[in-house]
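I have been asked to look over a protein record a colleague put together. Thanks in advance; the entry in question is below.
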Amino acid sequence: MLSRSALILTLGALMSVSAWAQAAPAETEVVNFTLDNGLEVVVIPDRRAPIVTHMVWYKVGSADELPGKSGIAHFLEHLMFKGTARHPAGEMDRLIAEVGGYTNAFTTKDVTVYHQTVPPDVLDEMMDFEADRMRGLVLTEDVIGAERDVVLEERRMRVEVSPQALLAEETAATAYQNHPYRIPTIGWLHEMEQLNRADAVAFYDRYYAPNNAVLVVSGDVEPEAVRELAEDTYGMVPRGPDLPPRIRPSEPQYDTARSVTLSDPRVGVPSFARGWITPSYRVAEPGEAEALDLLSEILGGGLRSRFYQEIVVKAGIASEVGASYDGGAYDPSSFTMFGVPQGAHSLEEVEAAIDAQVLRVIEDGVTPAELDAAKMRYVRSLIFARDEQASMANIYGSRLANDGTVDDVTQWPDRIRAVTPEQVQAVAARYLDPKVSVTGYLLPSDNGAQ
């Protein structure tokens, strides 16, 4: 059986607003300040365990790449571990392994992030490492060639061998006609093969600077101590040139429904996903993003959703159904729904049943009781987010790196509570128009095209 994550054909950025929107506990004193060189800092004290999560969020992702240079943001993420004059490659990894910590990094359409989880007594060293490689990275031709081979192999293993990943790429490229979200974060293979040292150095020099980054420290720390450490390490890094606003190509008006079909012998069970480009929290009109979040919860957010109750439990024609709103991107992202047939039932039956539930909301709206239950499930989920310090660091980092504020996070539950049934029906009618949807079909090779 295909996993839920494999079935959701991502049409936009990977960051979901459901992550950052889970606010901090009321008793947590979230401290926010900016260093003289422009680095924004967020400290989230959590003293329940002697652990600290340290994250640096750069406000640059694959959607900021120059045409023809797809994959350079992710490539540079790899290269950032190749060492500086002060700290050779592998030194940070060895220290983190010695203290039983964890380190990694990731790139999305909008951000590039480096993070460590370690005991508090080595936080100063983590800050020293990250501040040093913010401007001190050493790149040689030998390093470039070897790491380019690594990312090429990563693409082959994650994308080329996966029918789900291949269809997700093609669906995104169909959904976005002009915006760079149509390009995969890892890059197109033929462009990745041409990336070189000059590309990496130019990207690094342009975007890696304290005034284009957010530092988030969550865990067993005191805010004033973090401020002193930040000033002693990151504060010594010179401010970079001011970058222009992140204005990317915009999408034209959509006039057609489009579909992408992939038939592959590796597929055992057919599935489909249908999506629309929708505004993210950053660009939506007041209340719209919150209404879209609750719409996704009502339609396909879990066992109590309309899709699950009506299509899986009552009709018995689907084995998996769901809906997802990706509102955390910098630019307009996506609302997606998916389905997998059960037993002898056909994909067409599942598709028609999902469409019927969407039409019900558009024509009849949602009930106050149904909306209140969805709000309750969302607000209750905040409790669980508070128990993960790394999750809290992600919540605040992803929001602030996309032009948000600490207040956006802390006020989110109240904005969710304020959504009305009329607002939910309005966003469904406005954005879930089947005449401008994009649908991906994943079929066994003997099913033929739809």
About this structure: The two ends are 21 Å apart (CA to CA).
